Amino acid sequence: MGQTSFDIEDLLFKQLQGTLLPEEAAYLEAWKAEKPGNTDFFNQLTSPASLTKKLRTFADNDIEAARKEALSHLFPTRHLYKWWAAAAAIALLLTTGAYLFYKQPSPTVITQTIIAPGHPGAILTLANGSQVQLDTLQNGVIALQGGVRARIVNGSLHYEGKPAGTLYNKMSTPKGRTFQLTLPDGTNIWLNSGSAVRYPIAFNGPDRKVEISGEAYFEVAADPEKPFLVSVANKTTLTVLGTHFNVNAYDNEQAITTTLLEGAIQVKNTILKPGQQALLRPDNQLQLLQTPDINKVMAWKNGLFDFEGASLREVMRQLERWYDIEVVFEGPVPDIRFGGKMTRGIPLNEVLEILKGFEGADFKFHMEGNKRLIISR
């Protein structure tokens, strides 16, 4: 096929998600027609009959064996080694389904309501208090403030120019929305759903300070002359110098969690190294974790749910934020731990079907309208 326009692994993953664009579907069809092996591979990955047959062969409910089995069947050829990242994501998605399928072939969820997944979007509050909805805006200038232009570029907000004074904007993502913006210094921020960041539209002082709530991932532009400071939920301040890190500061979580991927960051009096995680408890005590699961921390930014080891309450908090619902427990909350990963790009009812298939999931789901999810025994 010569020079490619698309990555095949991306197209295969989109095929599973049902999000292929027309031009991507056409390219995938051309790739399948190149040689029989491509078509066979595609059919193994997507055919319901083929998939069902493989799921039934997984013995003893061994999820690790199922994962290896799926990889060996779905990615058998030598030249596919470079597809490992996509293969792992797809295999995890499939083998989670395999595990649930084997445990309970016909799980029942008491809901017919289809709740769509979240998508990119935010509310920009300007310095004068006016607000701009960013869900459907096209590329171009959306606001002028004191000599500074706020511009949408390929779904991300950027700033251009220098203001005469100090003006602040606030970016908020409602439940069911995520968004990315680039600050005037080149720092990139990704906001998870139900989050917000307040920032000056130009950094004129001796430092660069922003305020956040909810969850955000930062890639901070290096500037040794101006430290980057993050005020987290009015409870603590992070000091940063050119680094990549994630902060989870939702009000309904048990701690403020800061995870460092690159560089250096100071949390209270502790300097984090790459790969470490700091948990700030409500009593202001700091706990340092040496080997957190970075993939789990970054799952939301990569379009995934990672429920490995998560309790029912923890899972439901994620679903509340992403699907913009309220979860109500009627009676005792079942003590169950989930596992595996899945895409965040599927409707809520499909997620509930998967959760209901876990061993020990002796509870029911019921939607009241489009916003209230009732969980009962």
TrEMBL record:
Keywords: Membrane, Transmembrane, Transmembrane helix. The chain crosses the membrane at residues 83-102. Gene3D superfamilies: 2.60.120.1440, 3.55.50.30. InterPro entries: FecR, FecR_C, Ferrdict_sens_TM. It comes from the Bacteria. PANTHER family: PERIPLASMIC SIGNAL SENSOR AND SIGMA FACTOR ACTIVATOR FECR-RELATED, PROTEIN FECR. This is DUF4974 domain-containing protein. It comes from Chitinophaga sancti.
